[in-house]
Amino acid sequence: MRACVWYALVLFAGVPTLLSAQGFGIYEQGTCAMGRAGTGVAAPCSDGSAMFFNPAGLAGLTGAHATIGVTLIDIQGGFTDDVFQQHTELDDPLIGVPQLYISYGATSKLGIGVGLFAPYGLETRWPMTFDGRFAGYKNYLRSIYIQPTLAYQLTPRLSLGGGLDIVLGKVELNQHLDLADAPVPLPGLPLGTTFSQFGIAPGTDFVNAHLEATKTTVAAHFGATFKATDRLSFGANFLTQAKFDYSGTATFTQVPTNLVVPADLPLALPLGTLTIPAGCHVDDLLTAPTAACGGLGFGLFNTVFVTQPVTTTIKNPAQLVLGVAYKVTNAWTLLGDYQLTWWSQFNELDITFPQDATGFLNRKLFEHYQNTSGFRFGAEWAKSAKWTLRGGYLHHDGAAPAETVTPLLPEGQRNEFTVGATVKLAKALTADLAYQFVRQGDRRGRTREPIFNQVPTTGLNNGLYTLHAHLFGVSLGYAF
Amino acid sequence: MTHRRGLLAAGISLVLAAAGCHEDDLIRPPVPPYTGGSMFQRYVSVGNSITAGFQSAGIDSVTQLQSYAALVASAMGSPYYYPGLNWPGCPPLFTNIFTGARVAGGTSITCAFRSPNIPPFLTNVAVPGAEVIDGISNFPTPGTNSNALTLLMLGGRTQTQAMMAAHPTFVSVWLGNNDLLGAAQAGDTTLATDTAAFRVQYSEVLDSIEATGAQGALLIAVGFGHLSNNVVPPHFSRGSTWFNVAASGAFAPAPFTVAANCASPGGDAVLVSFAYGFGLLAQAQAGTPTTLDCTAPPVVQAVETAFFARLQAAYNATIQSQAAARGWAYTDSVNTTADSLAAIPGQFAPFPNIGNPPPDCSTNTFGLAFSCDGIHPSAATHRLIARKLVRAINQKYGSAIPAVP
After folding, report:
1. Nearest chain A residue (CA) to B21
2. How much is the pTM?
3. DSSP A458
4. B234 with B348: CB under 8 angstroms?
5. What domain range is B274 assigned to?
């Protein structure tokens, strides 16, 4: 039975997540901490979520504790383009981010546990009418961390903790390719001649590309808490980078353009004049030679766009959180955290197709993310033995520079507000509820990647991304 | 306590307002700032070779930017996106129409294709050679006139498809010239589009404009001069002119004869196209004796000229009534401008400047108003056309589009 629950959780955790912290980070890994804006590195919640927020927080626990929870994310956002002033709404479903923490106080000083959480991931879905479909219309990035954890109270004031993370990664990208941007595979034409130079209009879909890859890697997690006084404590938490050398499969399917060459098109090539006859279907021209196309056919779906291996490397960046907690009274606690995430480790993405001799498919995405700082402030009021209430506010920078705000991750600086509560349902059973409102600053961005793997500039930005989100957290804790 | 709560609420409201404010300044709507400017946020021109920027039997990025459509868009403050054709053009322009020499040694099938800078949409969707039917259909629909530029400029789309893709706020239409020009060049009235078909096809073009929700449109009358006023492009010369030039010995020593039936007064009423007349002359210069007979089928007879004049009037009556029914602007000002130009010496050459040896196109072969093919207006005339069109738009819609300089 336990195995089934575990398997179900892993499957559930496979549901990707999106956009609730810097970059593609997700910090809502416990309902209790969520209610106080994620603060708690100096005084983690007692629900076992310390395994994520600060592993040292497991030291000194008594008995065993299991918490299962989920954060539901309702993303609202879209893109308004400069030219037509048309707004396209994100098409994201309600997304669930699960957490499971099982902890046990082995001795009065030694705490052990295992946690499952997903601190990095994203999902963006756009309608197929959106110009951003050529960058990616359904994109997933998932990282599930399974973390055995150990914590020890070195002195009554100082505790240390750590964990080894087994990280299950999966990435999926679905995009259309634009015939206008595709090079014409005819010898003798100047290098880089694209179909757009034959008049093919931008936005002419001709290939659907599906890229999917998985990888399991490891990372490490360290934490420390220091109680300066009975009321004042400090904490530090460090999660190392997780590097995924993904290897997977790319599949391609032809999307009909339904275009017909409207008149004989003579092409003066070094080997002689070639005429593409009127009536030739462009879709045929892209595939096999036909009489209607004068015996011409590029065979793209037998040579270039065939199912083949694909590789890429993605790094979940390291993050450091420093925090302080001050117990104002026996009932009131104030908390503050500072978070530094090394997003500069997410710099370039090389998507490589080792079997593509033409090199046409290889992509280099320049992300050029910047390190970000987050500031979290929370308050907790133990109203009674049954009720504890929480609230908080946080602000953080955007990791994406102005030139890489894209449909894959239209991210930016955010202000977030949270409230939450714990209610003791029975002697051993507690329930947590939390709500978080995320308001991202509107950001100019682009819908397309530059062609031929060029370095993007803000000159490509063609509209405005807007985003806000409602997050709902719920969890149940059981002490045994 | 109430005061505290009030302060708290005010504080929270301020924070929420700060966090939730919409950064309107991040949007970049190109709204022209003058009265009525929003109507001209995205202008699209549907049309013919003149609209596309065809000059001297060729087209390139330079002539595309000289088109009246570019000038009107510029005056409107609307972006002008055109299917830029690389130098030396597609095909390159004539440098000497008599020798057939073109820019950079090109030929009539030379094509340097499109510029790699692809705009997000097309302001100018006009294609040279387009008749009204080409506004709504392409090959293989019977009667269409698709050509290589239909592919290169529109990617195989029709003009209305490309127009609709631009989500226009304002559209101009100048279609119909080729519906009678081809017939006139062939001297065959049966090749002209009949008025019933014209009405149906033209309506379909306009229906597609209405479907976009465009705020307004300008329908431009067919022609470049009123045929009823005997104004014809200098691509056509009168039979009597041919007779008189031949009599002056200008064609000697070529064995080329102009028949007596071309002399005045009968020859005053017939029109000889450049292609036909100079085709015969070229044969003679090559050593084969030829005669221009003004009763030959390619020569436009007086009765045929009258037919084309009536046809032009009928087309324009259809266009005018369609404009009225849809509440759009209609202008015949291009024709009246051409009528005026025709009366100014040097603007419409009655006969091409043939010289000896034949001069190149820099000598205004067909007059100042025309480029070096005698059909398509010169850059200066495009500017005149643009001024007239802007005036017509402002008059109909009460807008304040600045004058074309």
Report:
1. A441
2. 0.85
3. G
4. yes
5. 236-292
